[in-house]
Design a protein that fits this description.
MetI-like fold, mainly alpha, 316 residues, 2 strands, 13 helices
Amino acid sequence: MTTSQVSQARIESVATRRVKRRYAHNGAALLFLAPWLVGLLFLTLGPMLVSLYISFTDYSILAAPSWVGLNNYTTMFTSDKLFTQSLKVTFTYVAVSVPVKLIFALLVAMLLNKGIRGLGIYRTVYYIPTLLGGSVAIAMLWRKMLGGDGLLNSVLAMVGIKAPDWVANPKYALYSIVLLSVWQFGSSMIIFLAGMKQIPPEYDEASAVDGAGPLRRFFYITLPILSPVIFFNLVMQLITSFQSFTQAFVISNGSGGPVNSTLMYSLYLYKKGFSFFQMGYASAMAWVLVILIGVFTLLVFRSSKLWVHYEDGGKS
């Protein structure tokens, strides 16, 4: 064997060892990622693809799906009045609950940012509704409290006010659900509070010395610095609100009443799939919801260039 052949063999041997070491490292990484990959393939991506296929079929669960093409989507947008009503109810719910919840969470966070004693206890107390608010038991309790003979009306009756049955009146039923949503402000409040802790106190002190009042300091210092946190909370609450289901289901006894005033999109989707066994139609509705959430999230991201500011002085 010549000298060049020996050198070539050594180079190939070194390269082989490097490849083996690389694959050994990749194998360890894949081993640790395996649970996530299995979940992604079999619990997320796989069901999504199956759902996409089913959305183009007539599928009653009890029989094999039959291909109908775009028929589910055509029916949805042309002749299904309840679909239109569910969109109207959901858009109203999102448009009212999201800004009110964020404003309320921001106000509470500002109060808790004053360095009061027992801050940890207050944080815990205000966060409890977020942990419990999505449960069926709390929704049932809320329904009882806002009913015709519930706690709220009993208190109002003591001061001579005759109030309606809030959850049975079409004018107020949806806003009862909005109120329940706003009550679950704890997660947004905690994030706002964490963002406020990162604002250097020197900014506020310097502006106060220059004669700026509390409102001016809030709108010109606190809000611009806090805008990335507001952006994050807005996106998260927007996505969550579009998927709201439990509160409407429990408060309306699964009917979406009264007079379909609480027929949220997710509730109607559930009824189509599991009450009427129109799983193909329900799958089509699910994909429309995915597109709606994607579009609104994209709009928020695009608009963030105008109002989200970062520490480097630029915008998003």
